[in-house]
Amino acid sequence: MQDHFKDKAQNWDSGDIRVNGAKIIADAIEKEIQLSKDMEILDFGVGTGLLGFRIAPKVKQVYGIDTSEKMLEKLEEKNKPGLEIKAYHQDIIKEPLTKQFDGLISSMTLHHVENLDTFFKTIHTNIKENGFIAIADLQSEDGSFHSDNTGVYHFGFDAENLVQIVQKYGFKDVKTQNINTISKPHRDFEVFLLTAQKN
C-alpha cells in the first residue's frame, strides 16, 4: 500500500490547525457521546494519535488503525504506560478486523476513503450492538483544502448524502453538526461531526 503521509509524519504534530482541530473534535465527541472507562474504541486513520490520545484517558483502550507506517511510528514514540494506543498497520477495507469495538472515532480521514459504501458496511461489523460512530471531516469544498490532492477521493462531503449512506448500512440516530471552521489564506473550510448508533 502506498504511504502518502510518509514525508509528512515527522512534522505532523507541529501544526496548530491540526492540534487545535483534534481538541475541538474530541470536545465535540465528548458532548455527543457518553464515554466510559469500560469502552474499547477504534480510531480510524489514527495518524500520530492527535485525537486518540485525547479520548484515551476517558475510555478503557483506544486502538488505532492507519495505512501509514511512518505516522504509526510517530504514534509509538508518544505511547507511555497508562496512556497507550494499540496500533494496527493495515487497510481495514482490504483486510477487515475481526475484533468488535464499543465505538469508532475518526478525524479528517474519511475523504481519503475511496468507496464509502464499502467502508460503512465494513465498520458496521466492527461495532458492537448499540455502539457508536463519531466521524469528523470537511463539508463539501472546491478541492483547494489540500495543496496536493494525492490520495484524496472526496472534496469534503454533503451532509445529507452522507447521512443516507450511513443509514443504509444499519446505523440510526444519525446526526451531523458543524463544529469548526479552518481558516486558510484563500478561504474558510467547515468541519462537521457525524454521530450515529448501530441498530
Fold and architecture overview:
With 199 residues, the protein is an alpha/beta fold. It has one domain: 3-Layer(aba) Sandwich (Rossmann fold), CATH 3.40.50. It is built from 5 helices and 7 strands, in the order αβαβαββαβαββ. A 7-stranded mixed β-sheet has the order 3-2-1-4-5-7-6. It is globular, with a radius of gyration of 16 Å. The N and C termini lie far apart (33 Å). The model has no long low-confidence stretch (mean pLDDT 91).
Helix-strand category = alpha/beta
What percent of residues are in strands?
25-35%
The fold-level CATH name is: Rossmann fold
Q: Based on the structure given, which CATH architecture is correct?
A: 3-Layer(aba) Sandwich
The radius of gyration is 16 Å
Average pLDDT reading: 91
Please provide the ordered H/E string of secondary-structure elements.
HEHEHEEHEHEE
Largest sheet: 7 strands, mixed
Helix content: 25-40%
CA(first)-CA(last) distance: 33 Å
Number of helices: 5
Q: What count of domains describes the coordinates?
A: 1
| Bulk shape | globular
CATH superfamily: Vaccinia Virus protein VP39
CATH class: Alpha Beta
**Low-pLDDT ranges:** none
